[in-house]
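Section: protein folds

Sequence with per-residue tokens
===
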Amino acid sequence: MTKYKLLKPIKNVEWNVGEVRETIEGYEGNVYIEISGCVQIYAVELALLEHAGFIEEVNDVQLETPKRWRAEKYSNYFYLNENFEVTEKSDIWGAYDNARYEAGNYFQTTEQVEEFRKGVKALVGSK
């Protein structure tokens, strides 16, 4: 899909100047960029914004996903166990360690896992 970089701010749109967004092909071939999960800028609007100098096509730019922290082998990390308890473990890069990392239940500090625990408890309605 096509990538666009924002050159000038657009009022009431959460898209930072310099940030690159990629188009999505939706229902019946509609092409758009999604902003904040609800605002969609469709192909016609993208063309108008590009013509007005608000955005530019930048297909040579690679979108990078920030790499999450992972402990070195045999170093410790924290996770939330099945009893909602903060647990510290040495990462041996085994199946359980990998599964926790992939699931997002893998933290560098106790503060981070405590915030995660609050969110999980709020989600399931536990005190």
